Every structure is written in structure tokens, then in C-alpha cells.
Amino acid sequence: MSEETLADLIANLPEEERIVLSLYYVKSMSTVDIAATLKVPERAIHSVLSAGKARLRASLPFDFT
User: Fold this and answer.
1) Contacts of 33 (CB under 8 A, 6+ apart)
2) Residues 60 and 53: beta-carbon distance below 8 Å
3) Which candidate, 1, 27, 40, 59, has a CA 20 to 30 Å from the CA of 52?
């Protein structure tokens, strides 16, 4: 198994998840601000964040639980 960096793992996420996770964690934007920027409902941002975090967690070579 090749060792991927966190940046590699994030880069492999679907575009929508990659954008929302980047805005939320890197740019420290609120879900309200992300929703306004992307012109989507805030609940959609929550869904994408949840899915992105789950996909990222599943791709890590270790378990947080």
C-alpha cells in the first residue's frame, strides 16, 4: 500500500466534497457563508460536509474509534 498524504486523500475526494471541506477547514468559512457563496441551501452543505468527512475517514490507514 502506498503512503498517501492528507493532501492526496483530499485531492481524491469528489469535487463538491473537496471544495466544501476546503472552504470549511482551510478558509474557516461557516456553513452559512459556504451556502451563500455556492448558492445552495445550508442543509446541502451539512450533507456534503458529512459525506466528505466520512469518505476521508474511511480512506485513512488507521481507525479513530
Assistant:
1) 23
2) no
3) 1
pTM: 0.83
Is the dihedral angle over the CA atoms 42, 48, 51, 52 positive or is it negative? negative
Angle between helices 31-38 and 42-59 (to 10 degrees): 110
Predicted pLDDT of residue 54: 94
Q: Is 33 left (phi over 0), alpha (psi -120 to 50) or beta?
A: alpha
pLDDT greater than 70 at residue 46: yes
Fold of 6-59: Arc Repressor Mutant, subunit A (1.10.10)
Query: Would you say 8 and 14 are in contact if contact means Cβ atoms under 8 Å apart?
Result: no
